[in-house]
Specification:
Layout lengths: L1 H20 L4 E2 L5 E2 L2 H34 L2 E8 L2 E8 L4 H30 L7 H34 L14 H34 L1
Antiparallel strand pairs: 1-2, 3-4
């Protein structure tokens, strides 16, 4: 009986050691599954790839918002009390739109630099976040730019809504009817601005998760 138990125990140990060598999941003495170093490495690799893709999406979204805003301009005519008046609208006529251009340009540069750094580390198979100081710095930068994008999008939304609804108790019409191309560019730019804000917030959450586990 004793010999049989010892043999069974040895067989289990040999099976577990082979499973570790093959990179498979083993069971600990408490019955909980533990991952092999190969599996942990693969998970970390996937997380790094997701981080780089997130930076790429953020940069693409910021560039799109910036491009649509700086190309927002149109000339047309509007009718007030039967008079046909020429109107011309351009993004630089509004301080809110100028603020959005400045913020999206800054976020584009920030995302591009982060993409270069993270992409080079991914190719070298180096840790995406080498230290806690780096994680805190990245978290702070993402938070600041996320709030800036939110404020820029909100300010631009107020001006865009005024263009669409006009002003009450005045003969000023809906300017987006004669200036539909201009308003569409503004709307698309604002939409991608809020998308960039969401992506930056997601990147900040990734840094928080890393900090909580290290």
């Amino acid at each position: 009986m004793v010999t049989g138990r010892k043999t069974t125990s040895c067989d289990e140990e040999m099976a577990e050691s082979k499973a570790v060598e093959n990179g498979t999941t083993t069971m600990s003495t408490t019955g909980q599954a533990t991952k092999s170093p190969a599996q942990l490495g693969a998970l970390l690799r996937k997380a790094d790839v997701a981080h780089v893709c997130l930076r790429l999406l953020c940069m693409a979204s910021s560039v799109t918002a910036l491009s649509f805003m700086v190309t927002a301009q149109q000339a047309s005519t509007v009718t007030i009390y039967g008079f046909h008046l020429p109107v011309y609208s351009k993004w630089s006529f509004s301080e809110s739109f100028e603020y959005l251009v400045a913020v999206t340009a800054a976020v584009t540069v920030h995302s591009f630099l982060q993409l270069l750094i993270n992409g080079s580390r991914l190719l070298r198979k180096s840790p995406m976040i080498p230290s806690r100081n780096h994680a805190w710095l990245s978290f702070a930068g993402d938070q600041v730019f996320a709030y800036a994008m939110m404020s820029a999008g909100s300010a631009a939304s107020g001006v865009s809504n005024l263009n669409r609804t006009g002003i009450r108790h005045t003969p000023l019409p809906n300017f987006c009817k004669p200036l539909n191309i201009f308003c569409n560019h503004i709307a698309i730019s604002i939409g991608f601005t809020f998308l960039s804000c969401l992506l930056l917030a997601t990147s900040a959450v990734q840094n928080v998760i890393w900090l909580s586990h290290n």
